[in-house]
Amino acid sequence: MKMLLTVGPDNDTGFRKHLEELSYLMKSSQFIKVKEKGAKQTIHKIQKLKPNLTIIGGRNWIIRNNNILDKIPGKVGVLYCSPLGQAEISNGELKNLSIYLEWLDKKKIDYLFVGSEALANSLKRKDIVYLPALSFSDLKVRPRAKIPHKNIVAILNDKAVHKNILNTLAGVSLSRNIEEFWINGAREEYFDLMKRFRIKNLKSRGYIPRKDFYNELKKVKLLLQLSFSEGFSYSTFEAMNVGVPVLTSRTIPWNTIPLLKVNNCEDHEEIAKKIDKILSLNQKEYAHLSRNCIKVAKKAIEKNNSVCQKNLKKLFQL
User: How far apart are CA 113 and CA 67, in angstroms?
Assistant: First the structure.
């Protein structure tokens, strides 16, 4: 039986999740969490397992330890998740893309796997394979049973530069219907602005452990994800999959619910009006919106799961 091995960081990012969920695609597959800065332990584990295909997360660890690539048995690929817009904003990601393409040209790796279909289509190469964000584990998570009474609005993401946090906070400050606002940690300057914006009933939640995440998320009335750029946005999917509405920018096209879309993610007034409109829904209207969120989220992830299965199946038949 052919084996798929995925290798990625030991953290709670969507990047790690993308790699781990790929390991659920096949019966004979495994995910290795990397904790070390070096590569001795990890390469030993890989060689012991003798995979047919190894997919390694394309960030700092593999950049530092690229000398292990020719020691890995079977085919080797790197997963690069960022769309071009996000790569340009973060700067470092664009440099990484250039490095991985050079590795591909020199046959140092067999495949470059990308999370952006547009990027895959633009590069037009058979050794560049589209593997969108996928999830099997979340499809087993139960939707929340009760609608929260309190109008709690939250930002629960990693505060990366493309997340558009400051414009989102300015919109929050203009909202009239928010009763409590949660944020899971941010830089000191962000908190200074929140005080100056006079955001009321602010709760800094800090790091929320994975085991507690869904229980806390289900208390939220509305999540905000108004990014300048996104690949898929696991945080949006995770929330909508359990019935928590997420107000998003137009960079998350799979969110097809008009009420949950902001046209201009830099328009503070539009953000505030959308927040207040959602929080003004009666119980019946909100329950309908929650059910619609679940339907849209499951449809999006099931489509991605299917694409990943199809594209990896082709590689294993080569």
Answer: 19
- 116 neighbors 76 (Cβ within 8 angstroms): no
Contact 207, 185 (CB under 8 A): yes
Inter-helix orientation angle 283-317/234-241, to 10° = 130
DSSP string, 14-35: HHHHHHHHHTTSSSSEEEEEE-
Tokens 């071009």 label which residue? 84
Would you state the structure tokens that stand for residue 142, as one six-digit string? Answer: 């139960």
Per DSSP, the three-state class of 202 is: strand
Q: Which residues contact 166 (CB under 8 A, 6 or more apart)?
A: 190, 193
| CA distances from residue 297 to 36, 235, 250 in whole angstroms, order as listed | 35, 11, 16
Both tokens of residue 209?
A: 């452990």
pTM more than 0.85: yes
pLDDT above 90 as % of the chain: 86
Residue 8 per-residue DSSP state: E
Rounded Cα distance, 312 and 55, in Å: 11
Residue 186 has pLDDT above 90, yes or no: no
Question: Which DSSP letter does residue 107 get?
Answer: T
The torsion region of residue 158 among left (phi > 0), alpha (psi -120 to 50) and beta comes to alpha
Domains in the chain and their CATH numbers? 4-131 (3.40.50), 139-300 (3.40.50.2000)
